[in-house]
Amino acid sequence: MAETTLSFHVPKELINLHIKEDMRRNQELKDLGELAPHWDNMRRSVIAHCDQMLSMYQDTLAELVKHTDALYDVITVGAPAAHFQGFKNGGLRKLLSKFEAERRK
């Protein structure tokens, strides 16, 4: 099925932002230097979790790159209609002409 180009562009950009942010945070954690054993274990745990998330982000991004066969730049919708009114009062032109006629009185 054909999707708009934005259907893939926006998620790819968001995932790229997550990747950059997680890489920056991992580097900050690595740059902390020596810590007490308890805090060092926690840091390693957080880094391992972030590395796992980075891997998932990169896999998802690779899948999104495969699906860039969008055919449309924009998807439009038809003009809304007054189906629930059964078209008893006419269309927009008729309503506008009634409004203008009443305004002139």
Supply Rg: 28 Å
Largest sheet: none
Give the overall shape, derived from the CA principal axes: elongated
Category from helices, strands and their pairing: mainly alpha
Straight-line distance between termini: 54 Å
Q: Would you report the number of β strands? A: 0
Order of helices and strands: HHH
| Low-pLDDT sequence parts | none
What proportion of the residues is helical, as a percent range?
Answer: 55-70%
The average pLDDT score comes to: 82
Topology:
Blueprint lengths: L5 H25 L6 H30 L25 H13 L1
Helix pairs in contact: 1-2
Outline of the structure:
With 105 residues, this protein is mostly helical.
Keyphrases for this structure?
105 residues; mainly alpha; elongated
Explained architecture:
- This is Inositol polyphosphate 4-phosphatase type II.
- One of its GO terms (molecular function) is hydrolase activity, acting on ester bonds.
- InterPro entries: INPP4 (IPR039034).
- Keywords: Hydrolase, Lipid metabolism.
- With 105 residues, this protein is mainly alpha-helical.
- It has helices at 6-30, 37-66, 92-104.
- It has a domain at 6-66.
- The two termini are 54 Å apart.
